[in-house]
Design goal:
Chain B: It comes from Belnapia arida. The complex is a heterodimer of chains A (218) and B (243). Chain A is mainly α. Chain A has helices spanning 7-42, 47-61, 65-78, 85-110, 114-122, 127-157, 169-180, 183-215. In chain A, helix 1 (7-42) packs antiparallel against helix 2 and helix 7 runs antiparallel to helix 8 (183-215). Classes of the chains: A mainly alpha (218), B alpha/beta (243). Chain A binds chain B through residues 113, 115-116, 118-126, 129, 133-134, 137-138, 141, 215-218, and chain B through 50, 52, 75-76, 78-79, 81-83, 85, 87, 89-93, 102-103, 106-107, 135-138, 148, 151-152, 155. The structure holds adenosine-5'-triphosphate and magnesium ion.
C-alpha cells in the first residue's frame, strides 16, 4: 500500500538527520584528535614517527571508506566484539577523517615560514613552546578553509553508513521513498536538510577566516 | 672571563667544510665586526654560536655555557645569546608588544607585569615606545627590524649577534637600524655583527675580523684593519668589496 508523503514522513526524514549530525560530530572529534596527533607525528623531528604517520595517511587514503566501514563492522563483530552499527560507523568515519585532517594540518604546519621556527628557537623556546605559541596559531589560519571543506564532505559522506543499517538522513529518505514513491518530495527534503546542515558550517568558516585575517592588520 | 669563547670550531655541510678551525674571543662590552666575501662562512659562524647549526669539532662557550659536538646545554646557552637576522621574522599573529613579551614569559617564566616592563624598556631602547600595540605587518622594514632587536633585548642577553641586519632594507631605512645598534654599543652591549657596512664597522667596532675561506684570516682593531690591511686577500677585499 502506498502511503502519501505527509507531515509524519517529512518529520521522520528531518529527525533522522540527528544520526547524520551525531556521526559527523563523533567522527570529527575522534578523527580530529587522531588527525592532530598524525599531523604532529608527520612534522616530527623523529624519522620513525614521520614514517609511521605517512604510512597511516597513505594507507587510509588508499582504502575506500566503504571498506573501512565493512572492516570495522563485520571485522570486529567476527572478532567477537558486538558493536552497534552507529559505533562501527563512527569508528570507521573517524579513522577516515584522521588521515585527511592529518594531511591537511600537516600541510598547514609546513606552510608556516621556516624562519618562524628559527626565530623562536633562537629565543630559546622548546619544541613544544614553538608549536604552542608560534607555529600552530599561524597554521590554524591556513587550516580553516581546507578543514571546513573537508567537514562538509564528511557530512555528505556519512550517507555511506546506511549500508550497515544506520538509518541516517540518506537511508531515511530511501525508506520513505520506497513507501511513498514521491521521489521529488522525499529527496528534495533530504537534499534541503543536508544543505541546512552544511550551509552554516561554510558560513561560519568564512566569518572565522575573515576575523583571523583582520586581526593581524587591524 | 670572556663572554664568547670559540675554540677550533669546524663545521661541514656534507663533504664541504665551511668553518676550518675558528678561534675567537669576545670580551664584555666589545663590539666585533665580521667582514668577508659571500660564502666565507660569516653567517654559519654566528649560527653556530647560538647552536642553530651543530659543530663537528672544537667548542663554543658563551657566559659559562659550553656547547660542543654533542649539542647539550643548547637552550641554556640561547637564553644568553640574542640573534637578529637579515629577515626580521617577527611573529605575524602577535602585536609588537606580544612579540617581545612572549619569550621572557614562556622561556624565562617572567610574570606578566615584568614582561611588559621589559618589553616597554626594550622598545624604548630601539626608539619605538609608541608602537607597542601595532601589528608587525603595519610597520616599515626598518621598524620591524628594530622590533626584532627589541625582542632579543627583552631576554637580557649577554651578547647580541647581528647577521647583515640592514641588507634587506632600503638605504633610507638602513640608517635608523644602524643608529639603534650604535646606541646599543654605547650602552655597553657586547656585540658580534656580520656586516657589509664598512664605514659603520670601522667606526663602531672595537675589533674587526676578516673571514676568508672558512678561516679567521686577519683580525685586529678596526682602525688598523681597515687602515693598514696586512694580507693581500684583505687588501683585495677592501679594494673591491666596498660598496
Ligand atoms: N644549510 C646549508 N647547507 C649547505 N651548505 C650551506 C648551508 N648554509 C651555508 N652553506 C654553505 O656554506 C658556505 C658559507 O655560507 P655562509 O652563509 O656562512 O656565508 P656568508 O659568509 O654568510 O656569505 P654571505 O655574505 O653571502 O651571507 C657557503 O658556501 C654556503 O653555500
Ligand atoms: Mg651570510
Amino acid at each position: 500500500m502506498i502511503r502519501t508523503f505527509s507531515e509524519s514522513e517529512f518529520l521522520f526524514i528531518v529527525a533522522s538527520a540527528r544520526w547524520t549530525l551525531l556521526l559527523t560530530l563523533l567522527s570529527l572529534l575522534l578523527g580530529g584528535l587522531l588527525g592532530f596527533i598524525v599531523a604532529l607525528a608527520r612534522t616530527s623531528q623523529l624519522a620513525p614517527l614521520r614514517m609511521l604517520a605517512a604510512g597511516w595517511i597513505g594507507m587510509i587514503q588508499g582504502i575506500p571508506v566503504l571498506m573501512l566501514l565493512f572492516l570495522s563492522y563485520y571485522g570486529l563483530s567476527m572478532g567477537g566484539v558486538d558493536m552497534p552499527p552507529i559505533v562501527a560507523a563512527s569508528v570507521s568515519m573517524a579513522i577516515y577523517a584522521s588521515a585527511y585532517l592529518g594531511e591537511i594540518w600537516r600541510g598547514s604546519i609546513q606552510s608556516v615560514a621556516w624562519q618562524q621556527w628559527e626565530a623562536s628557537a633562537a629565543l630559546a623556546m622548546s619544541r613544544a613552546q614553538q608549536y604552542r605559541y608560534v607555529i600552530l596559531p599561524q597554521a590554524v589560519r591556513i587550516a580553516v578553509a581546507p578543514t571546513v571543506g573537508f567537514i562538509v564532505q564528511l557530512v555528505k559522506n556519512t550517507s555511506i553508513v546506511s549500508i550497515i543499517g544506520v538509518v541516517e538522513l540518506a537511508r531515511a529518505g530511501n525508506l520513505v521513498n520506497n513507501a511513498t514513491f514521491a521521489p521529488f518530495k522525499v529527496f528534495g527534503t533530504v537534499a534541503a536538510t543536508y544543505f541546512i546542515i552544511c550551509w552554516p558550517i561554510s558560513l561560519l568558516a568564512r566569518r572565522l577566516e575573515g576575523r583571523l585575517n583582520a586581526r593581524r592588520s587591524g | 672571563m670572556p663572554v664568547v669563547q670559540v675554540e677550533g670550531v669546524r663545521k661541514s655541510f656534507g663533504a664541504v667544510e665551511v668553518l676550518k678551525g675558528i678561534d675567537l674571543t669576545v670580551e664584555r662590552g666589545e663590539v666585533i665586526a665580521i667582514i668577508g666575501r659571500s660564502g666565507s662562512g660569516k653567517s654559519t659562524l654566528l649560527r653556530c654560536i647560538n647552536g642553530l647549526e651543530g659543530i663537528q669539532a672544537g667548542s663554543i662557550e658563551v657566559s659559562g655555557h659550553k656547547l660542543d659536538a654533542s649539542g647539550r646545554g643548547l637552550r641554556e646557552l640561547r637564553k644568553d645569546v640574542g640573534i637578529v637576522f637579515q629577515s626580521y621574522n617577527l611573529f605575524p599573529h602577535l602585536r609588537v608588544g606580544e612579540n617581545i613579551m612572549l619569550a621572557p614569559r614562556v622561556v624565562l617564566g617572567v610574570g606578566k607585569a615584568e614582561a611588559r616592563q621589559r618589553a616597554e624598556e626594550a622598545l624604548a631602547e630601539v626608539g619605538l615606545a609608541e608602537r607597542f600595540e601595532a601589528w608587525p605587518d603595519n610597520l616599515s622594514g626598518g621598524q620591524q627590524q628594530r622590533v626584532a632587536i627589541a625582542r632579543s633585548l627583552a631576554m637580557k642577553p649577554k651578547v647580541m649577534l647581528f647577521d647583515e641586519v640592514t641588507s634587506a632594507l632600503d638605504p633610507e631605512l638602513t640608517g635608523e637600524v644602524l643608529a639603534t645598534m650604535e646606541r646599543l654599543a654605547e650602552h655597553g652591549m657586547t656585540m658580534l655583527l656580520v656586516t657589509h657596512e664598512m664605514a659603520f664597522a670601522r667606526r663602531v667596532a672595537t675589533q674587526t675580523i676578516f673571514m676568508h675561506q672558512g678561516k679567521v684570516w686577519e683580525v685586529g682593531p678596526s682602525e688598523r684593519l681597515f687602515g693598514a690591511p696586512q694580507t693581500p686577500e684583505l687588501r683585495q677585499f677592501l679594494g673591491t668589496g666596498l660598496k
